[in-house]
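#onboarding

Welcome to the new folks! Below is a worked example of what a typical request in this channel looks like: someone posts a single protein sequence, and someone else replies with the predicted structure as tokens. Don't worry about understanding the tokens yet, we'll cover that in week two.

Example request:
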Amino acid sequence: MVKRIKVYAVKELGINTHSLRYARITHMLRNNVSPSIVAKITGHKKLDYILTYTQIKTAEEALRSIR
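Example response:
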């Protein structure tokens, strides 16, 4: 059952486990959860990985402000 849901999500919705994880991390950062807390919750050993999401978030916001 889970495998069928996963296949459907990837084929029909274009989402996978990585995109869900990315969305959750981005959501936490946008809601001012400390990057060190996000790293602990998600199991990242290095804060650098979380800071990458922060940089992407900043770039997305910059693009939105141009439009």
